[in-house]
Amino acid sequence: MIAAPAATKRHQPDPSSYSEAELIARATAGDEDAIRVIVQRNNQRLFRTARAIVGNDTEAEDVVQATYVQAFINLSAFRGSSKLSTWLTRIALNEALARMHRRRDFTGLEEIDMQSKTSGGGLLYFPSSLASADPEAELARNQTRHLLEHAVDALPDEFRTVFILRDVEGFSTEETASLLGIKPETTKTRLHRARKMMRLSIEKQFSGAFSALFPFDGARCADMADRVVTALRTIHGGKPSASPPGEITR
């Protein structure tokens, strides 16, 4: 009698390879792997969007979490008329705006005072995928990122939101207008003004910085002095010596 072969274990496909429709179907059925993939794919976009409105990192994270909870509870209601990322972004926007309304009687982006001050919370993160083993290059990249973050934070709320959706997240003018409930022409105007304000802000931060280019001071300056003295001692038998005026030592 021949024993029956043992059942072979089926290869489980990588959830990250699923199409959006497959992910949605599996997540609706409670598949945690599919849920994790959806979260990982949308984390950065939702955080940036929320951060552009609420003004600080901690509350932006709360908005993102609330967005996912609300979205996954109601995922079966998603009809696919737009991308899942767009649907999630709209939920995040509504959640962030609702929080702002509770915080300071915020009634919508159209009614913000153009001269209102932005909040002074944390910074907006622009993670870079460019890993560098060079500490100086990494430091320069971080300094540039912080400069841009401060410039974004300085934008009025309605300009900052349009800038994030259009220039950072890559939504089209029409998509941005639909998400914010404004006209495409208004979107274009706000983006133009946001870019202009960003440029002026960055130019202001750079003002006066050119005098610091190529510094040769501190330890480098002291080290050069030591090297010169050491070289002179070698030439003159152990002690520095200057040539008589007009005489060139060869």
Tags for this model:
disordered N terminus; elongated; mainly alpha; 250 residues; 9 helices
Write the layout of secondary structure elements.
Blueprint (H helix, E strand, L loop, with lengths): L19 H9 L3 H23 L2 H17 L10 H21 L30 H19 L3 H12 L4 H8 L3 H23 L11 H18 L15
Helix pairs in contact: 1-2, 2-3, 2-4, 2-6, 3-4, 5-8, 6-8, 7-8
The profile of the biggest β sheet is:
none
Low-confidence stretches: 1-9, 106-131
Order of helices and strands: HHHHHHHHH
Distance between the termini: 101 Å
Shape: elongated
Specify the structural class.
mainly alpha
Work out the radius of gyration.
Answer: 29 Å
Mean pLDDT: 77
**What's the number of helices?**
9
Determine the strand fraction and express it as a percent band. under 5%
Query: Which range best describes the helical content: under 10%, 10-25%, 25-40%, 40-55%, 55-70% or over 70%?
Result: 55-70%
Question: How would you explain this protein's 3D organization?
Answer:
The protein is mainly α and 250 residues long. The chain has helices at residues 20-28, 32-54, 57-73, 84-104, 135-153, 157-168, 173-180, 184-206, 218-235. The chain is elongated, with a radius of gyration of 29 Å.
